[in-house]
Amino acid sequence: MDAILVQFLNGLDKGGAYALIALGLTLVFGTLGVVNFAHGALFMLGSFCAVAFRKLLLLERIELSETELSPWGTALEIRTPYVNEIFGAYGDVLIDWSVPISILVAIPIMLLIGIAMERGLIKHFYKRPHAEQILVTFGLAIVLGEIIKTIFGANPIPQPMPEVLRGTADIGVLFGMAENAVTYPWWRMIYFLFSLSLIGAVFAFLRFTTFGMVVRAGMADREMVGLLGVDIDRRFTIVFGIAAVVAGLAGVMYTPILPPVNTLGMDFLVLSFVVVVVGGMGSLPGAVAAGFLLGILQSFASLPEVKAIIPGIDQVIIYLVAVVILLVRPRGLLGKSGVMEN
Amino acid sequence: MSDQKKGVSRRKVIKTGAAGIIGAGVAPMVFTRGAWAQEFRNNPTGSEVTFGLNVPQTGAYADEGADELRAYELAVKHINGEGDGGMLNTMQPLSLQGNGINGKKLAYVTGDTQTKSDAARDSARRMIERDGAIMITGGSSSGVAVAVQSLCQEMGIIFMAGLTHSNDTTGKDKRRYGFRHFFNTHMSGAALAPVLSAEYGNERKAYHLTADYNWGWSQEGSLIDSTEALGWETTAAVRTPLGAGDFSQYITPVLNSGADVLILNHYGRDMVNSLTQAVQFGLRDRQQNGKNFEIVVPLFSRLMAQGAGENIKGILGSTNWNWSLQDAGSQAFVKSFGAEYGFPPSQAAHTCYVQALLYADACQRAGTFYPPEVIRALEGFKFDGMGNGPTEYRAEDHQCFKDVLVVRGNQNPTSEFDLLEVIQEVPRAQVEYDAAIFGGELGPYEVS
Lengths: 342, 448
What we know:
The complex is a heterodimer of chains A (342) and B (448). By secondary structure, chain A is mainly alpha-helical. Helix content of chain A is 67%, strand content 7%. In chain A, strand 1 (60-69) and strand 2 (75-81) form a beta hairpin. Chain B is built from 13 helices and 17 strands. In chain B, the strands form 4 sheets. In chain B, strands 7-6-8-11-12-16-17 form a 7-stranded mixed β-sheet, sandwiched between helices. In chain B, strands 2-1-3-4-5 form a 5-stranded parallel β-sheet, sandwiched between helices. In chain B, strands 13-14-15 form a 3-stranded antiparallel β-sheet, with no helix packed on it. Chain B is α/β, with parallel strands linked by helices and 448 residues long. Chains A and B meet through helix 1, strand 4, helix 11 and helix 12 of A and helix 7, helix 8, helix 9 and helix 10 of B.
């Protein structure tokens, strides 16, 4: 029972990340009809917003010691962080909470990146075949990854979570189990709650605002909305920016779990695409449901007991489930007719 | 009247002829070794000789590759008599004279292995066929090392391996033309076991998470052998896909497995991610079977340790070399490297620098670049002053034997580079083994 509970929790927090990335991916597909293979790169760029912010906080004034030498015989560098000089002891608090604070930094940056990406490149491929869209966005993802590598290097860069949020919660006690029978990291639970909140915010935005109503109308019939005098292209550009923000924030909050590296986007891209396909192309609830479903299945498939019966199942379970679901429901779990069927 | 005949006698002709033949034909071979000038691939005929530096310049190990390249560039400088000389001031015995190799200036070309066997073989082949490289060196993967080593054997070019830790490189896949200075997983296990016993006792249950490829299997096998010999029980050995990213689904089963030690047979990003996540799941705060739960990382790298941040504190592992070593050779190298680049070298940089010097010195000793002679000069070569104490290139498998470092993640680092604390320099005798246990055949000296 304890093993099942802990794998279930693990599936939920993995599913949260999949759902967040897939949500943006399917949102872009549903509005613009673009299969954006650079969406994983947006997740990666978000994580590097956190890295850049922390590096900014850790900028130091370097003075060369006149008396001490480094182990290799050059003058020893004495480093003093500017943030401590400016904010005193509060500087340490800022550094400690750099990841959550980076959310505020990442929102405008990711919005701008998203809009620039759509206006600068992707809009030129709206009427091109999906294969060409995939090629150009995949190429863009590679270029973005290489740019990040040039700036930040190829090694993972650790991003610690705030001190107070480290450690684990005793979840088992809530279910009447013995003490420490099932523990789970606080940060991962926060990530799960964060992903639920972000998904809820996106749904509420699309459901309860005029902007969202127009976007949904545009998703249903772009031409008709255009004929009614609405500049749907501009709104869709903003939707692309919002999708970039969602992926970016997912990346920011994921940094304490997975130290950011330039290939982070590619690691999640294929998986997220499978999530979108399983959920149903263009279906927002489908992407969320499929994200959590596949996260949980992947988690259970990694149990040694399961792997002992079917070796390697942990590496193929997602694709196996995708095949089965597409055989039974070719449009995916919550896919609608007419999407990508012509 | 004399019987003596004037003119040239038959005996004199034979004598003079024989002396002439000896003088003109054989003597140069005797007095100038290597002067037979065999035709061999990329025999340097001009004033320069070229090394082929095959390192990962892109991909997961690009940062490690960049450090290898820095070390090679420094080695080339030192061999050519530039800079402060680095380990040339400490290496014993030494034939190099600081004027290149055999009177030829050393140059280099570079290739990108991408940490992919095919790409590494392609770039090695290009450097051999197009650039005329006399020797190929570098790399950060056992898969790549085995693949390139095999190519070099076929092409008759010596390969001085970079960072490769699998037993196979000098075991079942060893080659006459391949040499490894770096240690291997068997030596890691042999060095770590007594320390693990002293630190954690002999009644432990170990859970292995293993990268599912050649090096991971080798590391897992060696650690299981050495820990079970201590009396430890192996609870499970779970294979994880290379580059899994999120290892949480593999770590959560550890919580309920009854194990009290987690051994992470991961390297590079996999190590960074699995260690970070294992610590986040509170494994190090747990009590299991009445003992503190422990995590072991058998192969540490300072470059990778930087990625794991403070999660590495207190974790035990092994490493080939660390810049904090105080022997004269290590200090000379650190000083040289630090002055050139502003930070200390990694273990990958060290092994590559040493390999370049060893090959160059062997050519100088042999008086030729002819591979069979250089191989013979390296086989069984005993040297000192290059870190890790007295070292030998064992002739039977081309594996270097030297002291191995057992390290612990530094609890109180004084700088971003001061991440590993050397807790024991395990003597070479403790990690030596019979070359026959891993099988394999070196192959011929002469290749067509």
